[in-house]
Amino acid sequence: MDKEKILKKLEEDLSEEEIEKAKRNDHARRKPRACGFTVHIAKGCNANCLYCYVSTKAKLVDLSPKALLYALLLNPKFEVGKSFVAVGAICEPLDFPEYTKEFLREIIKLGNPVQISTKEVNYDLAKLLKRVDALVSMCSAIDDICKKFEPKRKPPSERLEFCEEIGGAVFLRPILPNVSLKDYFKSLEIISNYTDRVILGNLRLSKEVKRKLGIKELPKKYFEVKKKLEDYAKDLGLIVYRSACCSNAYKHKVVCWNECWKKGFCSSCPNTCWVKV
């Protein structure tokens, strides 16, 4: 698809004020991250999960879904049909279901590998979420444990049923030092009943997160524990990713945007990017 033609088409649907506002938006100039272009339909979250570095209240972006797409297309580094897109980096996109629905409908038309991360359950969006790489996040698949850290979100048992319905992957994140290896093994066993794909996410520490979790730093053997979890997950028949971009690549049958196989992040999943490149 020709980017200029798409921009002109969008301009027909947007007011001059919306166009100017989109040009000033950071999506129009922000550099892509390892996972691709992060799309912030909102900033902040009201869930206050104990381990989360996002502490501000949720505020929807001051652009319509089409104007947000326009801003993204203005970004000179964004390539139509190629650039990876990740929705939900610093917010919960399903807290704004109508906005998310409209934005996904628009961006899917471009043919880019699109990924969305959520802790919520919304069956009204199921058909749409099946068309993208849907990551269902949880810090544990055990309801009682998860509730301690994510008290305002639905229990993982409900999220897992939703994950199965939409053909998603579980984003088991973050791996917490406060949770035992035995309980994580149990989580992986539970997860394997609902999906064949899992991502193991790191804990990102800030002063506030350290305070809430009661820890000063990551344990010395933190990454050894993650490796044990990866090995156990593979023994259960799960496809394991060390990075979210790998899941997006696998879902859309394309080469990983971040070239993880060159950087030590590759878990040798069936996508075999090193062969496709």
Share of helix, binned: 25-40%
Report the sheet with the most strands, covering strand number, pairing sense and barrel closure: 7 strands, parallel
CATH-derived topology of the largest domain: TIM Barrel
Strand-and-helix sequence, N→C?
HHEEEHEHEHEHHEHEHHEHH
CATH-assigned homologous superfamily of the largest domain: Aldolase class I
Which oligomeric state applies?
Answer: single chain
So what's the overall shape? globular
Helix count from the secondary structure assignment: 12
CATH class of the largest domain: Alpha Beta
What's the average pLDDT? Answer: 96
Proportion of beta-strand residues: 5-15%
Strand order of the largest sheet: 1-4-5-6-7-8-9
- Total number of β-strand segments? 9
Tally of domains: 2
Question: What CATH architecture of the largest domain do you see?
Answer: Alpha-Beta Barrel
Give the uncertain stretches in residue-range form: none
Radius of gyration: 19 Å
The secondary-structure class comes to alpha/beta
Distance between the termini: 22 Å
Walkthrough of the structure:
- This protein is α/β, with parallel strands linked by helices and 277 residues long.
- The chain folds into 2 domains: 1-113, no CATH class; 119-241, TIM Barrel, CATH 3.20.20.70.
- Helix content is 39%, strand content 12%.
- It has helices at residues 3-13, 16-24, 65-74, 97-108, 126-129, 143-149, 156-166, 181-191, 207-213, 222-235, 244-252, 273-276, and strands at residues 37-39, 42-43, 59-60, 85-87, 114-118, 133-138, 169-172, 197-200, 239-241.
- The strands form 2 sheets. It has a 7-stranded parallel beta sheet with strand order 1-4-5-6-7-8-9, sandwiched between helices. Strands 2-3 form a two-stranded antiparallel sheet.
- Helix 2 crosses helix 3 (65-74) and helix 3 crosses helix 4.
- The longest helix is centred in the C-terminal third of the chain and has 14 residues, at 222-235.
- The two termini are 22 Å apart.
- The mean pLDDT is 96.
- Pfam families: Radical_SAM.
- Keywords: Iron, Iron-sulfur, Metal-binding, S-adenosyl-L-methionine.
